[in-house]
Prior knowledge:
This protein is α+β, with helices and mostly antiparallel strands. The chain contains twelve helices and nine strands. It has a five-stranded antiparallel beta sheet with strand order 1-2-3-7-4. The longest helix is centred in the middle third of the chain and has 27 residues, at about 145-170. Flavin-adenine dinucleotide binds near residues 101, 204 and 209.
Amino acid sequence: MENQEKLDKIVIPELDAVLGKKFKVLDDGFVRVVDYMGGDESIVQAARVSYGKGTKKVSEDRGLIRYLLRNHHTTPFEMCEIKLHVRVPMDAWRQWIRHRTANVNEYSTRYSIAIDASQKTGIDEWRIQAQDNKQGSEGFFGNEEGSKLSQRESELQNFAREIYQERLAVGVAREQARKDLPLSTYTEAYWKIDLHNLLHFLVLRMDQHAQFEIRSYANVIGNEIVNRWCPIAWEAFKDYIMNSKSFTGLELQLLKLIIQGNKDEIVKAAESFGWLKRTEKGLSRNRERIEFEDKLEFLGLNKPW
Ligand SMILES: Cc1cc2nc3c(=O)[nH]c(=O)nc-3n(C[C@H](O)[C@H](O)[C@H](O)COP(=O)(O)OP(=O)(O)OC[C@H]3O[C@@H](n4cnc5c(N)ncnc54)[C@H](O)[C@@H]3O)c2cc1C
């Protein structure tokens, strides 16, 4: 027994300082940390266990974490776990719950009366349906239209709540009375996940393509919580995943030709990929080509066709 290595529990004072603190999201939602296990140090500890070596210098630890993340050695990141308490409108929760690699307990509206709060949209927050992206929005309604939309939203939410209360008052079972509550109704849950899967959640939900509401939660979890909890892993995640761009094999072929300045060959290659089909109105829509054009724009390069 005397020869056994004494281990201290990994404590992160920066995260302890905000344990239980509610980070506000949307009009009435929040995220707060209930508990956690591990930190940057546990990633290093797990990665080095196979070598039987103890923790090295901080600079070496940073290099190791960055190496692991850059090269998709993901299991050491599963050694860190975090438990969050979240309050989210049901429509955002419906997207959130698709991430299957978490452990969840949600507030039960069979057992308890539904939370009496619905997410309200400010008059300047109504988004216009995007033309190009069927899943997205672009721009906002003006205040006049926005104010009408918010007024009608409020009427709908009040009416739905009133009917819900009426049903409860005459003794309808809670499990049935709830069926017409709007998706804007807030729900609460405990959500426990390891760092590897949390980073996967964040890369998808902090992305510009994610819906604003769930993106707002992801931004808080990333910037306020993971940043405090595992700052080295968070920095590596931003450098190698979130702010990185990947190129497909086809894109790399074209990039090589662009660098060589070989315009005819670029067009020929893109045509062979089926990216440059033409209609009377010009180039027909091709998602892969558009994604490549976006990457070129990001790099400050013009479309070569
Ligand atoms: C912008 C955006 C738009 C979306 N649009 C739609 C939509 O229109 N319709 C829709 O239905 N969904 C949509 N989704 C949800 C999406 O398809 C995923 O269900 C969600 O993002 C969860 O991702 P995931 O499965 O990778 O994550 P998790 O469930 O957290 O899983 C993490 C990883 O674990 C592995 N894994 C987990 N479970 C399994 C399994 N059973 N078998 C094999 N591997 C597994 C996979 O590698 C997976 O990537 C959208 C998501 C985003 C971000």
